[in-house]
Amino acid sequence: MSRLASRNQTVLPFRVVELFKEAVGLQAAGRDIISLGIGEPDFTAPPQVLEAAERAGRAGLSGYSPPTGLTALREAIAQFYGDHFGAPVDPSRVIVTSGASGALLLAAMALVDPGDEILMPDPCYPANRNFIASAGGVAKLVPSTAAARYQLSAEDVRSHWGPATRGVLVASPSNPTGTSVAPSEMAALLAEVRDRQGLALVDEIYLGLSYEHAPRSALTLDDGIVVVNSFSKYFHMTGWRLGWLIVPPHMVSAIERIASSLAICAPTLAQHAALACFQPDTLAIYAERRDAFRARRDYLLPEFERLGLRVPVRPDGAFYIYSDISDLGMNSTQLSHRLLHEANVAAVPGHDFGPAHADHTMRFSYAASLERLQEAVARMEKLLKG
Predict the structure, then answer these.
(1) Are residues 255 and 286 in the same domain?
(2) What distance in Å separates the CA atoms of residue 302 and residue 124, rounded to the nearest whole number?
(3) Residue ranges of the alpha helices (H) in the chain?
(4) Quick one: how far is CA 158 from the chain centroid?
(5) How much of the chain, in percent, has pLDDT values that exceed 70?
(6) Does any domain span residue 178?
(7) Helices (DSSP H) in 86-232: which residue ranges?
(8) In terms of domains, do 122 and 206 share one?
(9) Would the pLDDT of 7 be above 80?
(10) In whole angstroms, what is the distance from residue 165 CA to residue 152 CA?
(11) Which residue range(s) make up the domain with 122?
């Protein structure tokens, strides 16, 4: 048998996917599983988006697009960033990708050399480490704390930057914590990276799902960073596989060259459909759905505290609650297993997001309906109080 490439040894498992597969197996056996595990909105694309996809298909608009995406879509994304996130950008800096995963892969391939270290907070989204590894880079996890909102700080950059460090990758709001980096702290962090002539990759996939303040892109603080975003979460188009990068002008041609070989282009019908996301009536739907996510969070937070699922930092965005289960007398793997098999509730153990808090934390997604969340709480209470 042919041997596998050695890089396979560095690819970390994604336990969310394994949990999802296990839950699906139990559902197939007749169990009613409530998923608080995978981060996928229960909302799907609004009718306007579906109708746009159908029109594009009937018109035969399914051929390749330019590697950087449809011009009209790049213009719409640029305007959206200016109108909603306070960061007007030139459409030529927008690169449409095959999901945020495609965006991160392209960014890593274009900007990370073998051996380069990229600083990330622990906890963080596990696949990000694999994107860096795919380019030969090294993800250097920096343990964070509740006091720092589980985010990378300017002090972390000063303390952990070494000879091999190339830059940072931060997410605001974050998966798994739902916490954002405060604007003053983000400005200080980006200044530290800039002073070292480093790279700043900022994941803004959940920026539209900000609940406590008007969302503002990190581009308002530093126009030289690389921003990643997606149509999956705020726009509820997970399976359409569509995202984007916003990059400094000098990076566009290099990333375009790589994109034309690795992906040719993002799915064209999905691009035509996504144009409908930015219509006023569609944006109104997304605003209503954001309010629904906020209501779910506000229901769960006191319920979790009552159940002993302490929440050290109140999440201000995304649709995740990062709980400390230290008081429950079991580790996160044990609790995840018992929730799934005894309470029929799927939730993710902290091991997926880094070692610093792995044993005593769990991530719960509130991307399910309020009624299902209420049922999940009742099931968890029966298990935990029993």
Answers:
(1) no
(2) 24
(3) 15-28, 47-58, 71-85, 99-111, 126-134, 154-160, 183-195, 252-262, 268-274, 280-307, 332-342, 370-385
(4) 25
(5) 99
(6) yes
(7) 99-111, 126-134, 154-160, 183-195
(8) yes
(9) no
(10) 15
(11) 60-278
